[in-house]
Amino acid sequence: MLNEIYEYTKEHMEKSIEALKKDYGTLRSGKVSTKALNNIKVNYYGTPTDLSQVATILAVDATTISITPWEKNLVGAIEKAILEANIGVNPNNDGISIKLFFPPMTMEQRNDSVKKAKGMTEDSKVAIRNIRKNSNDKIKKIHKDKLITDDESKKAEAEVQKITDSFIVKTDDTFKAKEKELLTV
Predict the structure, then answer these.
(1) Distance of alpha carbon 84 from alpha carbon 125, whole angstroms
(2) pLDDT digits (tens, 9 = 90+) for 71-88
(3) CATH number for 44
(4) Do 128 and 18 form a contact (C-beta atoms < 8 A)?
(5) pTM, full prediction
């Protein structure tokens, strides 16, 4: 019963770390990443569709992304979707593919990305603490239902806190690695 709560806690906290890493992917670092285009939806025959589902997306070099649609008639729709997404770069349409030329990041932009990463990290910590609260509520409920003793309840809450502390450290380590990546020129 308590082991199920511990497993629930670890599993959900691990998902918070994964979500944080996915969020970091949307931040621009010194080298462009195709992840910057993950949230872009293209109007594909009246249906909003992920860009990656209608085109090949390649990071050609550190500052260029090439997008080649699988159907030539989608070039205009993809260009429009990129403009609407406002990712900070104008698409260059040659009729066959679209190229995105990202200017090198300034130190100010890098610091701004670090601030955004810090905010994402704090959101992740809040999510982890909410998971801790849910786990502790479950422990209190089974204690109230007299399924565990007072001592077992205290030990269980201490174990949940230990798990929480380890995931908070993981979150901080993830942020430090991302901060280093963002500030490296």
Answers:
(1) 31
(2) 988 898 999 998 888 887
(3) 3.30.1360.40
(4) no
(5) 0.71
